[in-house]
Each structure stands twice: as structure tokens, then as C-alpha cells.
Design goal:
The structure holds two protein chains of two kinds. By secondary structure, chain A is an alpha+beta fold. In chain A, about 55% of the residues lie in helices and about 5% in strands. In chain A, a hairpin with a 4-residue loop joins strand 11 (about 745) and strand 12. The termini of chain A are far apart. Chain B is mainly alpha-helical. The two termini of chain B are about 35 Å apart. The relative contact order of chain B is 0.10. The chains are: A alpha+beta, B mainly alpha. The interface between A and B is large, with 42 and 50 residues. Chain A: Pathway: Protein modification; protein glycosylation.
Amino acid sequence: MAPKAKSPSGTPLKTTPLSAPLPRKASADILSKSSLAVDDEPLPSGSTTPKVRKLAYPLPTHISPTTINNTESLLRFIILALICGAAIGSRLFAVIRFESVIHEFDPWFNYRASKVLVNKGFYEFWNWFDPTAWYPLGRTVGTTLYPGLMVTAGLIWHFLRLINMPVDIRNVCVMLAPGFAGLTAWTTYLFTTEMSTPSAGLLAAAFIGIAPGYISRSVAGSYDNEAIAIFLLMGAFYSWIKAMKTGSALWGMVTALFYGWMVAAWGGYVFITNMIPLHAFVLILMGRFNNRLYTAYSSWYVIGTISSMQVPFVEFLPIRTSEHMAALGVFGLLQLIAFVEIVRRLVPGKQFQLLLRAFVVLVFVVSFAALVVLTFSGWIAPFAGRFYSLWDTGYAKVHMPIIASVSEHQPTAWPSFFFDLEMLIFFFPAGVFWCFKELRDEQIFIIIYATLSAYFAGVMVRLMLVITPVVCVAAAIAFSKLLEAYIDPVIPESEEELEEATAHQPMSKAKAKKIAAAQQNKSEFNFTGILGGKGEKGVFGLDTRFAVVSVLSLFLFLFVYHCTWVTSSAYSSPSVVLASRNPDGSQNIIDDFREAYYWIRQNTEKDSVVMSWWDYGYQIAGMADRPTLVDNNTWNNTHIATVGKAMSSNEDAAYPILRKHDVDYVLVIFGGLLGYSGDDINKFLWMVRIAQGEWPDEVQEHNYFTQRGEYAVDERATPTMKNSLMYKMSYYRFHELFGGHPAQDRVRGQQIPSTGIQLDTLDEAFTSENWIVRIYKVKKEDPIGRELKAVSSFEGGKKLKKSASSSNAALASGAGGGRKSRPNM
Amino acid sequence: MSTKQPRSQPPAQPSAALQSSFQTLLDNYQTTIPARVKLIDSFLLFIFISGVLQFAYRVLVTSYPFYAFAGGFGSTVGQFVLLAGLRAQVAPGRDGEFKEVSQERAFADFCAASVILHLFAFNFLG
């Protein structure tokens, strides 16, 4: 290879030795690879004809165009490979710091389902009925989940076994997200290349590879639908652009396959379902209909729809719900227009053409009316509630507390845009501006995508994920345009120089003359700008170039730095294992969750039912392997409200509920000792609200606030609050830990009253080392028919000493452990 | 082609002009369209009629095996549009629009897409 483009040190300008006869469109990527951060400086597609150009700095002239081309492709390949490596590597913090463990909540279910898939086979998985979830209702898992993720993991697992690499399915699941992130970088490169130049593509790939907005959902162990969905999204968009450009049915089919896979994998597929039709529709309105569009759209829609209907969870939704009607409508419109176009080509008459146009409009209006009628008659379901909450952010809070209660459904706070995208968010509008400037068919796609996703990302935190790819693409376009402008060695000629140049023109065809001319230029413009004392050269001077390029490089470095920092500090916590720092700086692993789940697994009957708030349902099912009342599937609002009611009522009201649902153990998460803020007391108000939605007479939110409207757990707490099951279970025996000192809740910063809390219907069964997980056993009815309250007061009145010893066996480990690690505050 | 007649009759504009327009339409169709596109058109017509019949059956008689209907109707519509796409790619005047796809490639694309379509439709039947 030619000795070029590898200068690890020095100014960015030094790294661009390109010969003068730049091949058109090549837009060489001369890359200075100094870190994982790919800091590629796109080189300009020079002017079309090899004529004499003024250069701001000398270029070697003896390298042949083929060498340049080959080197370019090689470099591009290497860089892309390194970007993929970086994308994978930056997601491994969690694995290195903790261990190869599945994260958070939903991934635990996906993992469990994957285990069923690989251990019991596909049909068993497809027909899986899970009696342990949603006790006593059960859940038909096979038809209520998006199977794409598990099937993908299963296929990879089988493939690895096929090539004699027996890997544990857990490791496949853990590493799936980073692996697909690498693929996402690749598809983003392809996608951006279609929009702009390959250099922009490389930049976009590097951006998406490490952008925290995407990393937040795809670190190792975050085995969730989004892990593969963004790859599929970009794949579908890329092949759609390709299909639309070439008009090939094959690419349309590829789009449909990506789409089908996406439908199988993530509910967010609706975004594609509406994005592509909208793009097609805008193109039609702009008068850009052509048969390529027709072929691409038709083949995508037909194959995509019928493939999406294979997924049991989706089934007939594509023809029955409003979300999918835009795609159908544009499909019909395209048929109509294509037909009319054919007729129009055959008949030249003007009136006739007018008639045809009127016909198109008429049919469109009629079918739209038909759609509306069908919607109101109920054959086509109206928009789902989750969809309404996209338009009215207050909708969910009023009508569906269960959706509003999820923190990732909240509107996005402004800082999180910067946190997740850093400088990209500022380059994003510039990139969209460039798309407006050129406004080719595919760039319209970027514009639409940017507009829609910018709105959605503002409405819901989790949709930050959807805006991230387009921000990366648009920012990469803007960035590469900037670099292009400032690295391009060619100085556009001013008026008087133009004449001079025309004089040189005839000679320039010969290469030797060119070299001579280049050398002449070189001597003339060896230094420009201030260095050469030619201040009037303005933006083309070396000094300005140097200034801008170094600032841009600095941005890139800062971006990498920021991304690494965010990933390592904010997004790499598995949340089933927590980490904290000891005073001496060493790391302290807090493993309460697994400790408690393991305790359940070892110490309870196989069929004992565990009640907890729905957040922990999947984890209990996955790690403790016990039936749960509610879990993260949240399909049955009433059931969840029942649990909410049990948690928020006093013991007398809660006990019958617990008994009716055969609850053996109740599990609460309590962070007051450690300062773990995601605990149940902080989620408590949502339990109250959801319960209130079902039983407005029995549970009222305002009863849980103090007179002054505060949410307090200390002395000021209302009686309702203090008597609620949740409060009692959280703070039961909490003050004993402080040995006479006032008990301090470190999450809420309030002092817990030291009057003992008495539990009549529950026994403390287990409390984890740091008190994060507390498990209570529900007492059976008294054998001689007394009320449990009477029993406990009878026993309490009789002898206090014994009641302490009766429950100390289970408690010793918990309370003792807690004391050990935090002596007396 | 066949569905065009009924809908343009109601607006009784200068009917003579319309009449002549139809005449030119038919004439132009017969003279300018090559034979293989006509073959495709006849296939399109057949699929169209088949689709109309299926839909009429579903509306008038029964929708009982709805999966079967959805699969059948889906494959009919799919085949129709794929064929129409093929027609657009081999019809005269294509070269202005399809620069990257040759006619042979178009046919290969069509075959591949049809196979995938029918795989899905077939899977849907049962």
C-alpha cells in the first residue's frame, strides 16, 4: 500500500496527502486513526475535470488513481471493522465490572423464554402457557410476546453449536446486544452512504456505535427487544432507500424481510409502518411519483404485511387497526396513480387527463371516507391508548396510570438530549439543513424521519432510542460537510485568477504539465493566511483551516470522552447487582436482589406464590422460579390494581386479598438503609393511583399526603400511610437497627418514628444484607378461629420475650448483616 | 385496463371527445404495447378477477376460514402488484426510470419476491 494516511501524530492537516487528479465521487477518506474514536477527515471530491487548481497545501502527485481507490476501500473496511469493535467494546463495561449477568427486569423474562426455546424446542415455545405468571390466571406466553428476540438468540445458539462452539444460552443473551450494535454501525454506514458520502457514512457509524442514546438500551446483558430492533430499523430503512432508488423488487423484498423481523421483535415496528408510507406520500405530493417508487413500495407493503401477520401477537392488526391504515391507504393510492399513469401515456387528450386526475382524487376521498366509517363502525380498531399518549402527554396520567407509572414513558427532560447525544444534537439541525439543500428523494426521508422522531423523542424518554440513529446520520452529514470544506485543498478561483487558469487549461491534460502546474501552485501557496502574510485569502488560508479542523477534532475527542463516561457511569449498571464505593475507594458489590431471590428459591415451597409490585415479577419468575401475581407484562390492569390495593390498605383490608390470592410471601424493596432510591416507597404513590383507578371509594390518593400536601414517611405521615401494608413492611423493625438513635431513612432524608410497628398478619421471613429486599410470610388463619390481630395481641401481652425469639431465626441474618456493614450510622 | 370503462361514463362531458379518447386508448394499446407486456396484462387481469371473486365470496357467502381467506387474498394482491411492478420494468419507456435494473434483473427480482411472498402466504393458510 502506498505510504499514506497514517500519521498518528501531528496536525490533522498533515494527514491528507492526496494526489491531484482526484477521482470524481471518490471522496477519499483519509483517516487519521488515533484512537477508537474514528476521526476521519473526509476528503473532498475535487472538481470534475482535472484542471489546474490552486492548492492550499502541497499534495503528492505521483500516486496513481487506482492506488488511491484501493487504499480508500481498504481503509474504509478497516475503519468500519474498528468501529464495530469499538461499538461492541464500549458495551462491555457491565460484564467486566460485574459479571455476565442479565440486567434489569424485562430481560429476565426474555432470558427465561429463550431458555424454554432452546431447551424445549420451537413448538413448545410457540404454544407455551405459563401457569406461574399472573397467578391464578396464567399467561399464554406464545401469543403475547414478540418472539423475534428469542428466536434470534436461539438461532445464534444453534449456529454456534453447529460449528462446535457449545456456548451457554445466557452468554448468547448477554452478548446479543453488543453484537447487534456492531451490525447497527454497519447498516448506519450503508444508510448514510446512500444519503451522502462514504466519509459521512463512516462518521455516522462511529457516532451510532458509541452514542449513549443507543448504548442505554444495548449494553451487554440488556437482553431486550430494543437490542436488535435498532439494527432492524436501520436495515429496513437502508433497504427501503435502496429499493426506492433502484426500483428493484428484490430490495423491496429485503425491506419487507427486515420489516417482518422487526415486527417479530419490537412493538416499535409501527414507526416503520408509518415512516415509509409517509415518505412515499410526500414524494407523491411533491410530484415525484415514478414506477421505481411503485415497485419498491408495493413489494415492501405486500410482503411486509403478510409476513408481519405471521407473528401471533400481531396477527390481523395490520388490517384492523388505525396505526396501520396509513400504509394501506398509500398502497391503494399508489395502485391508482400507477394505473392512471399507464392510461395517461396511451391517451394524449387533455380533458381526458383532467378527468383521470379528478378520478384519482375522488377515489381517494371515497376510500378515506370508507376508512372512517369502518373505524366508527368498529371493524377497524381506533388508535391504542399508548398512541394517544403520544399526542397528549397528560392523557396517560389521567386514563392509564399503569402506562404513566413507567418512568421511561415520561416526557423527556431537556438535559437528557445533551446527556445522550452530546454535540450531535447541535449538529443535527445542520445536517437536516444540508438535506433540505439537496433535497433528493432519499434526503426527504431523513427530513421526515428527523421531524417525526424529534417530536416523539420529546414526548417519551424511551423514544430517545428512535431519534438517536437519525441524529447520528444528520450530524455525520453536517460534520463531514464541514470537514470537507476545510480540508479540501482546492482553493476556488476568484475572477481574475479564472482567466489565468483558462490559459493553463490546454496544457493540463498532460500529466507532466499538471505536475508542473501543481508545483507552481505549491510554490505560490506554500503558506496562505497569516503564515504567508496573505490575510485576504480569508477562509481558504491554512490558519483558518487549521483552526476549524482542530476545533472539530476536539469536538470528536470530547464526544468520545463523554460517551465513554456516560456509558460507564450511567448505563452499565445491571440493576440486579449494585455497586458502591467504600470510603477507601474500593468497590463494594451489593448483591441483595440475587441473595433474596436465591433465598426464596432455596427456602420456600415450589408452588408458593410471591406477591410483589409488578416491577419485580419477571425477576422473581426468572431468578426465584416462583409463581407471581403480577409481572412486567402488565396486561391485566385489574390484577395490578388488586396488588396495589393490598399494598396500600391496612392489614385488615389487605389480609383477605392476600388469602384469596393464595399469597404465601410478600416481597418489598426498601432502600431506606442504603439510599437506594428506586424502592417501593418511592413507587408507592403509583400503586395508590392504580388502585384508586379501580376502587375509587376504598383507596384515595390524598389520604397519603400530609395536610400540607407533602409525601412524608416520618412523624407527619398520615394514619392511612402509617397503617398501609407497604409502610409497615418497609419500616418494620427499622428503628431497632439504630440502637436508640433516631432512625434515618436515607432515601427520603426523613426520620422514622421509633414507635415499633406491629404486624399481625405477616411474619418477617427474610431481610437481605443491606435491607433492600424484605420478604414476609403471610400467616395462615388461626387454627382455633381467632382473629390474627387478637392472636398477636394475646401473645404480645403474654410475653414479649418469646415473640422476639420466634422470628429471630430468619431475621438474624438480615438484621445482623445490616448491622455489620453499617454500624450505627 | 378493464376497470376503466365504468367509472368515466358518469361525467357526461363532451361525450364525443371521450368516445374518441377511448378509441385512441384502445388503438394505442393495440399498436404500441409489445406482446409480452400484453401477456403480463392478461395475467394481471386474471389475477384481478380472481381477487374480486375471492372478495365477493368473503363478503357475500362467508368469511369462515378467515386465515385461508387472508392468505389467499394476500397472495393474490401480492402477486398482482409484483406483476405490475414487473410490467413497469419491462414496458416501453422504462429506461428513463430504471437505470440500474435491467429487464432480466427485473424478472429475477420478480421471481425471488414471488417465492418469498408465497412462502409467507402458504404459511398463513394452515
